[in-house]
Design a protein that fits this description.
Length: about 450
Amino acid sequence: MTPTPTPSITPTPHYCNDALEIADLENLWLAQTRAAVTDGWRYGITRADPTSDIYGTIYDNANTFDNQTDYSNQPVALRISRVSEDVNIQEGDYLTVTYDGVQTVNVYPPALSGDIDTYYFIGSDGSTYNDQWLCEPAKLVPTLTPTATPSPSVTATPTPSLTPTPSVTPILIPTTSPTPPPSVSPTLTPAVTPPPTPEYLVLSSGDYDGDGISDIAIFRPDSGLWAVRGLGRVYYGTSGDVPVSGDYDGDGIADVSIFRPSSGLWAVKQLTRLYFGGADDMPVPGDYDGDGTCDLAVFGKISGRWALRDITRAYYGTAGDLPVPGDYDESGLSEIAIFRPDTGLWAVQDITRVYYGTAGDTPIPGLYQWYGTGKEVGSGRTQPAIFRPASGLWAVRGYQRLYFGTTGDTPVVGDFDGSILDNIAIFRPSGGLWAIRGITRAYFGTLGDIPVTR
């Protein structure tokens, strides 16, 4: 009687190495970009099973993260796909993955070239594997070969043996006690440098869904996060970038966009990337030709030069002046204008000069009231206005003075109720408070965030 063979029990799969597990992918950044075009090939972070479910992607040359879907915490994989150019990944190339509350890991794919569409499974340390159970390495994280501390021990030993007699003298004892304490020097503290925040910000629009109402929104410089309340989050930009939201394509929606002073890069998400301006320039987006779309423009902080791309260049202002472009004459386009903090001068090119405000005031020009018979005849124009942080004073020239906010608050101007007129609001970074006068209070954002609405 032949014994019934014991069925071979498929062993429960187990991991040879710890898997990288992600719930919320927050950013991807390529340490090396090699494609000749913006969409040469694509990297995507997917679920390990099934790999068709995508957290987010990034194109090699564009190096701009596209956030897609969050999942429950689980192992992930890296997909690499040719788009318009053969893949060319070289030994040592890696991408930085930011996830779940700004945790980061560098993920290393193997060297690859050609027409490729493939997956690698990711270990918790950033190594990649050919199999889901992380047993067959594709590329392990490079181990830093310790630069053998070049034999300093050899240099110290030889000569002392020649002078045995003086070594008896107790003069050697003091050298052991006074020397170590200075090494615990407080010079390590400056390493905690907060990300740079713009000293003054000009935005053209803050309506991110096209409903005619300004949205509560923030930009987080240290990670490039844009978050719009009730709409979503996306990562676009990095530390040092200046947000320049505006409607750059005329569709009535504010586009997520940044200006990078270090190189003069303007990047408008899913629309364009070009270079205009430099490190000494302040971005001043606005509709300077009245065509209904936001124009790229910069103001020279030292030179006073205004450069409006494809429109004009002019010198108006000087070092220390702040740009305050706006429609001051109901012409339907933004005019070149400056506020001079030390004297309170408002100067609008070819239109007017008035004094309103003083040193320490923040200029907040806006459309605060209708003129003449009302909005039906287009009688709205930008008015000079200031916020005084020391007291919370808001003062709109020829219209009103009131107190709203306090020291440390950031003044925010926007149409938060759909009336076309601007409302008075503040953002309090210390607690993430948004207070919109007469409309609402909400908590959105944290210390270091920049309000990006208008």
